[in-house]
Amino acid sequence: MSEAALPVGTVASGSDLVNILLVDDEPRNLVVLETLLDEPGYRLVRANSGDEALLALTSGDFAVLVLDVRMPGMTGFELARMIKDRKRTALIPIIFLTAYYNEDQHVIAGYGTGAVDYLHKPVNPTVLRAKVAVFAEMHRKSRALEAANRLLHAEVAERRRAEERLEDLAQTLDRRVIERTAALQASEARLRDVNQRKDEFLATLAHELRNPLAPVRNAVVVLRRTGLAADTLAWAVDLIDRQVRSMVRLVDDLMDASRVSQGKIELRPEATTLEAVLHEAMEATRPLIEECGHRLRLALPREPLPLHADRLRLSQAFTNLLNNAAKYMDRGGRIDLSAVVEGDEVVVRCKDGGIGIDAAHLGEVFGMFSQVESALSRSRGGLGIGLSLTRHLVQLHGGSIVARSAGLGEGTEFEVRLPLSRSAPPPPAPGIGAAPPPAPGIGAAPPPAPGIGAAPAARPAAGLRILVADDTADAAESTAMLLLAAGNAVRRVGDGQAAVAAVGDFDPQLVLLDLGMPLLNGYESCRRIRAQDGGAQRTLVAVSGWGQPEDLRKSREAGFDRHFVKPVEPAVLLDLVATLVAGRGAEGTQRGSGEAAGAPG
After folding, report:
1. Would you say the pTM of this structure is higher than 0.85?
2. DSSP state letter for 19
3. What does the CA dihedral 201, 203, 204, 205 come to, rounded to 10 degrees?
4. 24-42, pLDDT tens digit by residue?
């Protein structure tokens, strides 16, 4: 059976079915035609007028058109002429049906419009089906022939394209070999350059690490002597403190470089002001600027400039700019730091009278591990990380940075643009560093504090029982000495198993655990201590050289209350002790040097 006759506008091509268009203004005549032509393989489409027939012809491909001659509006003859005038439909066979025109002139007129047959109503079903079947079969064969012809043309075209491709490959083979050879040579040159840069970087790193170690070793030799004068002792302590801080900054730069390359630097924005950020940067660079004999001139607008920024990270960016200006300038130079408001942005300019930058290298200053060659003879150190990190930090704050220089010997200016915050600026702090930093928690960066040998801001009123576990003897001993000097009772062990065993009889209130220890690591030691009686009441702190987000997550999951990254500032550790003592009141009592008694923590 054929599909039910479709209304005009729903004609679709099929792989086997052929479309037949039935046109008559009388619905009952269409029903009769649909009944007569109800055959498998036909898709019957009906139209009630010439206009509907034209619409159907635009949306489908038809094998034959069965057309009533007498219709209102547009007769069958008129419709046939229009169909034959269109190139797309000119070859469609037309069978006329009529009940009114029997004269020869009407038949001749019908054939004159391009019809292939002329049948009188009532139509003989057998004749109609036979004639339609002939045209349907011809249409199928024509369609199959066209498909085969298309395939043949496609195959010929594909063969021609293949020949052209082969010819093109043959013609360009030599050129491709030459290009590939040139590319390999360029790649080898890049690898040699990368290898050279690696060697230069490792040499620079070794140099920068040895620089602080040499004076530290000298100071240690001095400290080993007996009968030192107070001023000599203070000098040695201050020297060691400065050099240790220098090494910490170097390691921090390397870690930041790694975080930048992995996209792991995250900001902790807060409401602050540009003044606060710049003053922190100035305080951080003041020792170097004074040592070099430079003058720093600051010019800021009178009104506060509000920012929504990570104060620590943004001040780090400006610290790098000021350090860069101080390093690459002859002694007694001047640095101008200024800010102006332009629209919704604040523009900060850091200008120096230093050695300047050649125009050929101006675009390279923000590259990782970049060093301006002409500046190496005057360089005061550094790994070429600071400016790259500065640009990344500025961009993370939604800003931009550019470098300008008139050439060698003409100084350099860095221009930083930052978006201003719409919120009101926070009230000014009473002084730089006056506000006490929050107690460091998991993942919190330790705040600036006095170095080893400096007096902490606050001492605990009564000591704690503290267990220190570290397989590095120097680290454990120096930490224990610091805590003992602060009035605490301390026990020191060298591995994780000893730490778990010592908890039972020592009953510590605070446990400092190194993570990488023999026999039992810090994570497992923490879990076992927590599982003991009273374990939930103890404060457990991880002390490690690992401080990546994954390490902090593991510490939290193991049950640590804090995670300190080595080297831990003494003031940070003593502030934690003071906080715990204040929380416990005078509950703890000391039993003696290295031992403790009293209520459990």
Report:
1. no
2. E
3. 80
4. 888 888 898 888 898 888 9
